[in-house]
Amino acid sequence: MPNTKPTAPDYLSNINVVLTRTSHPGNIGSAARAMKTMGLTKLTLVAPNLMQTPMTAEPPVFDPANPQAFKLPEESFILASGAADVLENARICATLEEALADTVLSCALTSRRRELTAELQTPRALTPELLTAAEAGQQTALVFGNETYGLSIEEVQACNRLMTINGNPDYFSLNLAQAVQVVCYEIYSQTDSSMEHLKVEKNTATHAQIGGMIDHMQGLMEDIGFFNRRNGERIIRRLQNLFARAGTETEDIDILRGFFNMVQQKTQKTNPPQ
User: Fold this and answer.
1) Is 90 exceeded by the pLDDT of residue 2?
2) Contact 107, 126 (CB under 8 A)
3) What is the Cα–Cα distance from 46 to 43, expressed in whole angstroms?
4) pTM for the full predicted model
């Protein structure tokens, strides 16, 4: 019976990824791709401040007086690679306060201790609390800052949880989209979503199929004189035990018997019966 592909839990729609003052249009698209890969689809952009890139010669300018007029450039959609719907449905806000207005739990992604009293926690440690809130229908947010400067003190203080990604203290330089991917993966990995659909179906060979293949092999071994000066019965017993332990599949049997047939044909041509 074929495995049924599961769907991402509906409550993941209560987890909002918020990107504040993002400067590279490609990072927005890559972040959307990272989100959708892990079942998250709710994206909010706060005051995007897009820079000029080789692909985006004239980046759109964000007008805080009219946030909804802002349109992402083509580069963002190219980097989204199949997650265009996340970008098309993205909410555009002028301030972080507006973006977090309906949230109960908001996590600021930061690697700086600064003058903060709240405890820094890893994505793994904070995810259970996030998922509990999301499952209860509460709105939650993961807030990521600008690629160069991160979150400001004011932006961090607007959140009620601090999250950090632990890494090499001598070199820690995650791209924005990579950081989004790490956090989203940790969230999805703790949803206990089934992986049954990824398992390959096995057609285990029956006792009779293995026995027929062994008989075929034995006949070939006799034809080529393999048993000369050898204990044929002992060898066959060991082969039977080998294939019984190996979890042999029907496709394995077909491959081996096809090989045996070809060897027999070649042998008969070389040494035709007298």
Assistant:
1) no
2) yes
3) 10
4) 0.74
